[in-house]
Amino acid sequence: EYYATPTYWPDFDKEELYRALLEYSRRERRFGLVKA
């Protein structure tokens, strides 16, 4: 899955990585429309 951020790579620091991981962990995964 993709994560889009307006932050450019040179400015992508630990805090931005934490935000990406936090957002990813909050996603509701639906494998073929079946709640996991």
UniProtKB/TrEMBL annotation:
It holds the Pfam family Prenyltransf. SUPFAM superfamilies: Undecaprenyl diphosphate synthase. GO terms for molecular function: transferase activity, transferring alkyl or aryl (other than methyl) groups. Gene3D superfamilies: Decaprenyl diphosphate synthase-like (3.40.1180.10). InterPro entries: UPP_synth-like (IPR001441), UPP_synth-like_sf (IPR036424). Keywords: Transferase. Transmembrane segments: none annotated. The keyword Transferase applies. The keyword Transcription does not apply. This is Isoprenyl transferase. It comes from marine sediment metagenome. The lineage of its organism: unclassified sequences, metagenomes, ecological metagenomes.
